[in-house]
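Long-time lurker. I teach an intro course on protein structure, and each term I like to show students one example going from raw sequence to a predicted 3D structure in token notation. This year I'd like something fresh instead of my usual example. Would anyone be willing to generate the tokens for the chain below so I can use it in lecture? Attribution to the forum is fine with me.
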Amino acid sequence: MSLSRMVNLAFYLYVLVLMLIYFLAIIYINIAMVSISVASIAALLLPFAPLLLVHWISSRYTDGHENKDRKMIFIIITSVGFLLLLSCLVLLGVNESKARFTTERWLGNHEERIYMVDELLKGRGLVGKSEKEVIALLGPPTDTEYFSEEAASIYYLGAERGFIRIDSEWLLLWYDGRGKVVKKEIRTD
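-- Reply from a regular --
Happy to contribute to a lecture. Here you go:
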């Protein structure tokens, strides 16, 4: 087997692995509800850079009359890889927009609360807020029997995160004697 044939075979094998990586990334982004961060963008761009390097090596060790065909194949492969990369970036953006907490969005779509709860807990500091402040921010608690003996306020978040979404996730809040939040927890029923 010639060197150019081995290089081309390695290139095609890499392309298959690259496409598999991006398809798995699309599935993971949806399941884990990943949003935009430096790490997520770097993880998506990292596999694309070697594609360019492998192409450069392939074109260097390919015969001259094969270059036209190789260029066309590379353009097609790069376009498909770029579209997969772009679709991953779009999914990150969609998840990022769903994750932005506002009281209006929280009250308007109960199934999307699961996206917003992490930003709510990080940025709003529920611990220390009075029950009135919590109700002004989150609306009245969900009327449910789940966890009712354990927590003072319970909010439905939506279907649980993960691959198999059978159960629901709930935000539980506990208050002290002065009516201030002392503990918060996310639970699955």
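Some talking points for your students: Residues 88 and 120 are 25 Å apart (CA to CA). The longest strand covers residues 168-175.
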